Amino acid sequence: MSEVVLKAQRRDIGKKASKAIRNKGLVTGIYYSHGEEPIAISVHPLNMRPIVYTANAKIINLDVEGSNSTIKCMLKDISFDPVTDVIVHFDLFGVQEDKPINILVPVAFKGQSVGIKEGGILEHIIHKLPVACLPKDLPEKLEIDITDLKIGHAIHVRDINFPGLTIKTNGDATIVAIAVPRKKDEVKS
């Protein structure tokens, strides 16, 4: 499991206050969790980079200025400006060590497939899988060994198993396949 620290300041709520914070070049956000009071926060946009611009799943340790401890949470939602593509707002959701979380985890491959060495084409069909797990069991990515995968064969969700994880998708779904290469005379112009 990968963790990252996010330093934040408390902020006032409301449209005027949010606009003033954005005019200072900061990003507005909110932390919420079941049974807790929401915390309105603001952060520097550079602090959001390791959370937003990554393919890996991460637990965030929220460090709110003036607080004695960090809060474990996950990125729940994020909004971008439609013109400039700058982060405008984000939502963080609190996680508890003893309760499972539902999250999308990226799929990665290791090894070189026998089928690729024979001229087959790798078809990466599912890039992220929805899983349920305890926060301590959250992997950065689901690494699947494709070394023995031959031309015409595939790996389905039912073929993989990771300890501590429950994959929340149909077992018949294909994650990766090695396709037969097309012959030059089959290619249409």
Question: How is the CATH topology of the largest domain named?
Answer: Ribosomal Protein L25, Chain P
Biggest beta sheet summary: 6 strands, mixed, barrel
Per DSSP, the total helix count is 3
CATH top-level class of the largest domain: Mainly Beta
Identify the CATH homologous superfamily of the largest domain: Ribosomal Protein L25, Chain P
Judging from the principal axes of the Cα atoms, what is the shape?
elongated
Which structural category do the helix and sheet elements fall into? mainly beta
Helix-strand string: EHEEHEEEEHEEEEEE
Strand content: 35-45%
Placed side by side, the strands forming the largest sheet appear as 1-3-2-6-5-4
Q: State the distance separating the first and last CA atoms.
A: 48 Å
Query: How much helical structure, as a percent, in the residues?
Result: 10-25%
Architecture per CATH nomenclature, i.e. the level-2 architecture of the largest domain: Beta Barrel
**Assembly form of the protein:** single chain
Gyration radius over CA: 21 Å
Please give the number of β-strands: 13
Note poorly predicted spans: none
Overall average residue pLDDT: 86
Total separate domains: 2
Describe this structure in words.
With 189 residues, the protein is mainly β. It has two domains: 2-94, Ribosomal Protein L25, Chain P; 101-186, Ribosomal protein L25, C-terminal domain (RNA Polymerase Alpha Subunit, Chain A, domain 2, Beta Complex). Helices cover 11% and strands 42% of the residues. It has three helices and 13 strands, in the order E-H-E-E-H-E-E-E-E-H-E-E-E-E-E-E. The chain has helices at residues 15-23, 45-52, 114-117; strands at 2-10, 27-32, 39-43, 58-64, 71-80, 87-94, 101-110, 121-124, 128-133, 142-145, 154-156, 166-167, 174-179. The strands form three sheets. The protein has a six-stranded mixed beta barrel. The chain has a four-stranded mixed beta sheet with strand order 10-7-9-12, with no helix packed on it. It is elongated and about 60 Å long. The termini are far apart.
